[in-house]
Amino acid sequence: MRRLTLLLPSLLALLIALASAEPVAAITTAGTEDGTVSPETYRRSIALALALVERDEPHPAADLLAGIAAVELPGGEVMPVDHGWFVAALRAGEPDLEAVSARLTALLDELEAWPPGAVAPDAFERLAAILSRPEFQPQQEPDLNPLLQRLAELLDFLPDLPSLPWLGNLLVVGGLSLLAAIVAYVAAGLWGSFAAQAEVEAEGAGAEPLTAGQALSQSREMAMAGDYRTAVRLLYLSTLLLLEERKLLRYDRTLTNREYLRQVADNPSLAGALRPVVDTFDEVWYGQVEPDAGGYEAYARQVDRVREEAS
What we know:
By secondary structure, this protein is mostly helical. The protein has helices at 2-17, 39-54, 58-66, 84-90, 97-113, 123-131, 146-155, 166-207, 212-224, 228-245, 257-263, 268-285, 293-310; strands spanning 36-37, 70-72, 78-80. It folds into two domains: 2-136, no CATH class; 197-310, no CATH class. The protein has 13 helices and three strands; from the N terminus they run H-E-H-H-E-E-H-H-H-H-H-H-H-H-H-H. A three-stranded mixed sheet has the order 1-2-3. Helix 10 (228-245) runs parallel beside helix 13 and helix 11 (257-263) runs antiparallel to helix 12. The chain is elongated and about 105 Å long. The two termini are 74 Å apart.
């Protein structure tokens, strides 16, 4: 659009080159009933519009330009002109009169600088070449859904299928079923997280008060019984209780695991050892990862590193 606006003065100058001068006519706010004016009337209309803009009268200037739709050349040819940008800019809530004035001035300078004369033999050919440029072609609406366009192109290669009135209903039912399955899956995941949180709080409330040694002993008993998930939880609890016993953090069932990490943030080596212990516990207890004997032993080694840092 910007390129079209910048080229508008040159295009209109070419229109005047195609025309010969005519006697000065009185300036009106419109041309004929269909908005067609002579070249001289058009030049004077642009000059009047510029004067109105400089007098801070944008609306009369917009009305004047809106009433001009074409310029009739001496040979009878009618060339359309588009003042859409000027009219929109002048009728805006806060019109940029300086920008409008600058463009009207440039347009008027082009019109006045072009000497009148006879129509050149190749004038219409040159005009047609100008109007065929991309900037003068109507803008196409962007394709808002290229995927659908691509799908339509692919369907063109398929043979014609018989009419299936029930196919649309089947697609709707299938789409709703898929949506319901997704919602159910998400809801199940959220419910599992809430249930796991409630479970750990309930078990913690029933087992307290525990010492680090008691929690470690119970963890080993659960591991021997094959309940590695509970064994991991008790091993994690023993780690927190051990750090509390050694005055390295404050254990509180209402605190989150990330809050425990923040409590030891001023001890980088301890924080570095505790972080994988917290991450593994979250994966097992909240992520529904079922550990086995090897996973439990690996977790125990992570806990041993924390014990070494806390000693």
